[in-house]
Design a protein that fits this description.
InterPro entries: Cro/C1-type_HTH, Lambda_DNA-bd_dom_sf
Keywords: DNA-binding
Order of helices and strands: EEHHHHHEE
Strand content: 15-25%
Structural class: alpha+beta
Pfam families: HTH_3
Radius of gyration: 20 Å
Number of strands: 4
Number of helices: 5
CATH topology: 434 Repressor (Amino-terminal Domain)
GO molecular function, one term: DNA binding
Protein name: Putative transcriptional regulator
Distance between the termini: 36 Å
Length: 87
């Protein structure tokens, strides 16, 4: 016995959240190179590059260390944006 199922279009809704940061701006204000910041945070220069380009989101511990280097709150370094996107 063949059972046929009708094709139907299904719409999915999902939330798009984005975490942006001000690391590069703050690093320049504090006159730090990527190497110097990496050394202070005990991470690689590549990690700093990835953070600045938004390719990598830091752990909570690293975010805390970054805020301490720049003497500000985590919320002053990282900007969390919520939004809806239909796909």
């Amino acid at each position: 016995m063949d059972v046929k199922y009708p094709l139907r279009k299904v719409n999915f809704t999902f939330e798009v959240n984005e975490l942006r940061n001000r690391i590069k701006d703050l690093r320049l204000v504090y006159d730090l190179t990527q190497d110097e910041l990496a050394e202070k945070l005990e991470v690689s220069r590549q990690t700093i590059i990835s953070l600045e380009k938004g390719r990598y989101n830091p752990s909570l511990i690293l975010a805390y260390k970054i805020s301490r280097v720049f003497m500000c709150r985590i919320e002053d370094v990282f900007i969390f944006e919520e939004g809806n996107e239909n796909g």
